[in-house]
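step 3/5: co-fold with zinc ion
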Amino acid sequence: MSKRRDQRRMGRALALAGLNQGLTGPNPSVGCVITDAAGHIVGEGVTGHGGRPHAEEIALEEAGARARGGTAYVTLEPCRERSSGAPSCSAKLVNAGIARVVVAVEDPHPTARDGIRVLREAGVGILIGPGARRAARRYAWFLAKAGN
Ligand SMILES: [Zn+2]
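step 4/5: write tokens
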């Protein structure tokens, strides 16, 4: 997978995140793009109004079985745990058979953080950084709050 393609896909995920900016309550608006194993986009999502569902859930639902062996581009680290007790996005990405996850910025939130660790332990390839500057600017308020 080329670096330029990663940048382009993450650019698309950031554009999706922008659609619901300011509409997702206390949660940041996250964008997610999922490609199949061949690199074709098969699912897209943005955090729902009020913060649910999460972007990854929407994109995974659209992608269905085509997500197997594919890549997920997410503007913020996928959550490790949900306050509701529902399956986390990290678990859902693993269960869907996603082979690789590209993340713009890591999530410092105490419950959500470490999604990347969960994915790594499940054998998913991780790349952090494409789109990081834009994402850090977009999530500055959230990153500052959650880091305390
Ligand atoms: Zn999530």
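step 5/5: annotate
The longest helix spans residues 3-19.
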